């Protein structure tokens, strides 16, 4: 296709779309180069869920784009509900991931830390700090 086949005003948009499609094609080729079973053996169940959700979301998004190019309003199509459903599952997985990352309180260590901070320390000469301060 030459620039004579379409208005120059949309040239930059077409170049951007072409670059995006090439990028998606590259990513899909990378994903397809490794067998699914081989990939799933290398990752934990939470990562498997993330991969499955990302794949489903990508495919449905591409279908959304396809519908748009065919003149169909995807907002009135079942694909919209599917994308929302997948997004809700992605949010659930994110919550689980965030909970795993949250710092866990070691109650025993916290007790020791507080007890040590509140206890009377002895002065360098071996006399308790309270007695030493009263003697001055």
Keywords, please?
136 residues, mainly alpha
Helix-strand layout with pairing:
Blueprint: H1 11-33, H2 36-42, H3 45-69, H4 78-101, H5 107-118, H6 129-135
Helix pairs in contact: 3-4
Please characterize this protein's 3D structure.
The protein has helices at residues 11-33, 36-42, 45-69, 78-101, 107-118, 129-135. The relative contact order is 0.05. α3 (45-69) runs antiparallel to α4 (78-101). It is built from 6 helices and no strands. The mean pLDDT is 84. The chain is mostly helical and 136 residues long. The longest helix is centred in the middle third of the chain and has 25 residues, at 45-69.
Low-confidence stretches: none
The biggest beta sheet reads: none
Number of H- or I-type helical stretches: 6
Helix content: over 70%
Radius of gyration from the CA trace? Answer: 30 Å
How would you classify the helix and strand content by structural class? mainly alpha
Distance between the termini: 95 Å
Q: How many strands in all?
A: 0
The gross shape turns out to be elongated
Order of helices and strands: HHHHHH
Give the averaged pLDDT, no decimals.
Answer: 84
Summarize the structure.
With 136 residues, this protein is mostly helical. Helix 3 packs antiparallel against helix 4.
């Amino acid at each position: 296709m030459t620039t004579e086949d379409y208005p120059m005003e949309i040239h930059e948009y077409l170049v951007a779309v072409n670059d995006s499609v090439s990028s998606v094609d590259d990513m899909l080729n990378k994903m397809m180069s490794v067998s699914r079973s081989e990939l799933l053996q290398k990752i934990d169940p939470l990562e498997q869920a993330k991969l499955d959700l990302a794949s489903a979301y990508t495919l449905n998004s591409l279908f959304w784009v396809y519908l748009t190019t065919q003149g169909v309003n995807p907002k009135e199509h079942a694909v919209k509900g599917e994308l929302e459903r997948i997004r809700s599952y992605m949010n659930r997985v994110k919550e689980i991931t965030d909970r795993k990352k949250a710092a866990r309180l070691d109650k025993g260590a916290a007790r020791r830390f507080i007890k040590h901070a509140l206890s009377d320390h002895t002065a360098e000469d071996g006399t308790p700090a309270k007695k030493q301060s009263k003697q001055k």
